[in-house]
## 1
Amino acid sequence: MGKVESFELDHTKVKAPYVRLITVEEGAKGDKISNFDLRLVQPNKNAIPTGGLHTIEHLLAGLLRDRIDGYIDCSPFGCRTGFHLLVWGNPSTTEVAKALKESLEEIRDNIQWKDVPGTTIESCGNYRDHSLFSAKQWSRDILAEGISDDPFERHVVEY
Ligand code: ZN
């Protein structure tokens, strides 16, 4: 099997919440795509339950798209400790961490149920499994820790 960078990372050495650049892939015509690790909770200590994670996923799809030029996709890790973010080009981890911080603040402070996209049987693959309450509580806890732009040393971003 091909080697996967994410499985080479020593998950006991990182200090979540953080943003980490995993790779920059370059296409045949020179276009670049960056892949980030958005780690919201500490691996093997914590995991966001599926309802809250699912609602955060639907919200980040819009909130991060509005804040990051070249946004492609943001998808949850199976371990439920964070997300992969794919972006055209090569923004800094600081820019991404600030965009993530703002997005989680929106979820914590302003988002209401009517603002959550894709919560119907037609628009989601598991529409019963959403929790805005959980999404807000986890966002609050993650923000209380602060989001670092370095995975190994706490370097929390401000505005
Ligand atoms: Zn869904």
## 2
Amino acid sequence: MARYGILTSGGDCPGLNAVIRGIVLDSDTGLNDFTYVGFKDGFWGLVYGETINLDRSAVRGISKEGGTILGTSRFGPYTEPDGGPDNIKKALERIGVDGVIAIGGDGTMAAANRLYEDGIPTVGVPKTIDNDLEATDYTFGFNTAVEIATEAVDRLRTTGNSHKRCMVLEVMGRHAGWIAMYSGLAGGAHAILIPESPESVDQICAWVTSVRDRGRAPMVVVAEGFTFPGMEEAHSHKGLDGFNRPRLGGIGEILAPIIEERTGIETRATVLGHIQRGGVPSAWDRVLGTRFGFAVPELIADGGWGQMLALRGTDIVRVPFADAVGHTKTVPLDFYGEARAVFG
Ligand code: F6P
């Protein structure tokens, strides 16, 4: 009987528990002779061999729960002094685990790929609210984040309308504008600002002014990774994360006073932050997470180490890690152009 360890790594996102449940239900079907454990807190549990037993009763009713029952972190598997392939192989041997199922975003998939290349049997499941992972049409978590951000746009519009203010909503997404695009389009924002397409202060203020001139309260959605022309990096004032990447956020607070000063329209900024990652997953994310989970045992049974599951159209497919890492899936400029044509 083979035993596999599941880990969730990087920022949490709605739908992680649905994946875990989807995988673990396999141990009760008799289809494969597999059992499962969970590594605590991402790669930390892998490095230190700290696990949680996962049987059917451990995953009962969890697909509707936000977060991850395993805990997560941005601890890297190569973090010294205890990380690295030799130590991890020893830890896996000590606890009797035959392979790793890594659920995460681009940083996690890059680490999973490295583990695989260093001889540790590893497969991947793509997750992130940012939807920025190459090789999959969608990641679970994105749909829930968009629903939450859209509700925020709707709410900001009623208060903005009442006070005739310009409302600026900053959403997450790192260097991709997917959450901003979808929530902005769904909420009928008058301008959507994304990292893929820098926009000048003059242009943004022209959109805001034209909205005001026809008697409406301007609604601007800005992605945290948005830059003005000439800015080399996205705004970051909170240092680096555990994967050594700049922590983004704060551009909305910079933009709002500029709009107010240039246009004379009272402007308020809201940074939605981690609200986008918390709480119950949407039905869509639960279904996608569950389908990914169901597909993992089959992937392992077929010896699919070194591969990540992906959604292509409505199919769950398998792709090599190498196809998923190293580049960000950004919003296509023609898609942005369709929306931009009616800004203001
Ligand atoms: O990748 C998911 C994400 O929520 C990004 O959108 C955001 O930039 C980042 O994680 C925030 O990370 P943390 O939870 O470490 O503040």
